[in-house]
Amino acid sequence: MSNPSSDQLYDLVITGATVLTGAPAGHVIDDAVIAVSNGRFARIEPAGAIGAPLRARRTVHLPGRVITPGLVNVHTHANLSMVRGVAEDLGFAPAYTPGIPQGHMVTPEEAYAIARLGALEALLFGSTLINDTFVHADIVTPAMAEIGLRVWSCGRIHDVDFSGVSVGRWDYVDAIGEKTLQDAIDLAERFEGKSGGRIGVQLAAHAPDTCSTPFLRRIARAAEETGLRVTTHLSQSKVELARIRERDDKSPPELLDEIGLLNERLTAAHCIHVSDSDIARIGKAGIHVAHIAKGNATGATIAPTHKLRAAGAKLALGTDNMHADMVEVMRWALAVGRIQLGAVTPDWQPATVFEMATMAGARAMGLEEEIGSIEVGKQADFVAFDFRQPHLTPATNPLGNLVHVAQGRDVELVAVGGEVMVEGGRPTRVDAEAIRRDAAAAIAALWKRAREG
C-alpha cells in the first residue's frame, strides 16, 4: 500500500464495489476504494481504512458490482466472427474447411470492418488485451486499438499457399513466406510499444503444417534477432499430426523443439493431440499453452490440461474463433477439466481458471509486471461486473458466481490504463451500431463470394 498525502488529487476513484484483485495472495476486498493516478493503480484499500473521501477528478460509486483485473485473451482471431454460427459445426478449423470465407479472400476494407467488430465484442465482454492473428494486420492493428483495448497483433506467418489447403493441396512457396515474415517484422517496427504501450506484436507462426521446416527455422532466427515472442497453433488437428509425421517423421512438438521454437517465449494454442512424450517435452520447455476450452469442446476435443500442467506447461486462456467471451471460456475450462478428472478437486477451482484468464495471460504476453492483477503500481486495467441481477444473487462467493453463472454481457464498466472505455455497458470511444452495421455488410459480401466459388 502507498502512503499518499491526504490532499492528493487522483484522476479516478472507484468506491463501493467488491474487488477480486487477482494478486498472488488472492485478495478479496469488500467495499473497496480504488484510486488511479497517471494510468496506474495508486491505492486499493477497504473503505474503512481510508478515512476521509479521496479527492479525484472523477469518482464513480459502484455498489453491488464486482471488479476484476482486465481479462487477457492470449489467442483470438477477431476477423473470424465472419464464420460465426457456421464453422463451429463443420469439424475443422476455418482455414482447413472448404466452402466458407477464407482469410485469403478478405479485402483490406473488409478486414478493417470485421476486426473492429471482434475487438469491440472483446472489450464489451471485459477483455482489456487480445492477442490477435489473421490477415491485413497493418490495417486492423490500429483499427482495433482505436476501440480502446490493448492489441497485440500479427498477420499469420506461413509459406503454404492457403488457397489450396482447404482442398488438401500443400504447396510451400518461398515468396509467400518471405512476405508474411517481413510483414510481421515491419509491423513490429511500426507499432511495437505504440499507442501509449497499448499495441504490441508477437510473431504469429501459423502452424507447423502451414510452415515448411526450413521456414520454421527462419522464424526461429527472426524471433531471436528481434527479441519478439512467438505464438502459434500446435497439435490442433489430426491433419496437422499426419502432415508433420509424413513430412518430418516427427510429432509437431518434436519438430518445434528441434528447431528451437519450443521454449518459454512461445504461446501455443490448443495442444490437443499430444502423446505422453509430447506432453513431457512441452512441459520441460515451459511453454505457455493457450487453452481454447470452449472452442475445442465444440469441436469434440479436449486438451489434456492436467497432464500438461503437471509436466510444467503454463496454462492461459483464449477464445479463438467465433466469440470473445472470456467469462464463458473460464467456465468451460473449469468444466472440461473436471470432466477429464471425473471429480471436483481442490486444485481445479474457480480461482484456477480465473488466474489463467488474468495473471497467466499477462505472463504469456511478457507483461506480468504491468497487467494481470489489481495491485499498486500496475496499469489500471479493470472490469466491473454488475452483480445486481437475479442470476448473480446472492453473491456469497463472488468469484464462484463470476465463473459459474456470470457472462460477458454482465460487464458494466471497463477501464484500460485508467481510462474508462466502457460505461453502462456501452463503448465510450466508438459508435457500436455503426461498427456492427459495417461488419455485417462486409461479412455478407464475403459469404456471397465464397458461395459463388
Automatic annotation (TrEMBL):
Keywords: Hydrolase. SUPFAM superfamilies: Composite domain of metallo-dependent hydrolases, Metallo-dependent hydrolases. GO terms for molecular function: hydrolase activity, acting on carbon-nitrogen (but not peptide) bonds. Gene3D superfamilies: Metal-dependent hydrolases, Urease, subunit C, domain 1. PANTHER family: AMIDOHYDROLASE-RELATED DOMAIN-CONTAINING PROTEIN, AMINOHYDROLASE SSNA-RELATED. Belongs to the metallo-dependent hydrolases superfamily. ATZ/TRZ family. This is Amidohydrolase family protein. The keyword Heme does not apply. It comes from the Bacteria. Residues 66-420 form the Amidohydrolase-related domain. Pfam families: Amidohydro_1.
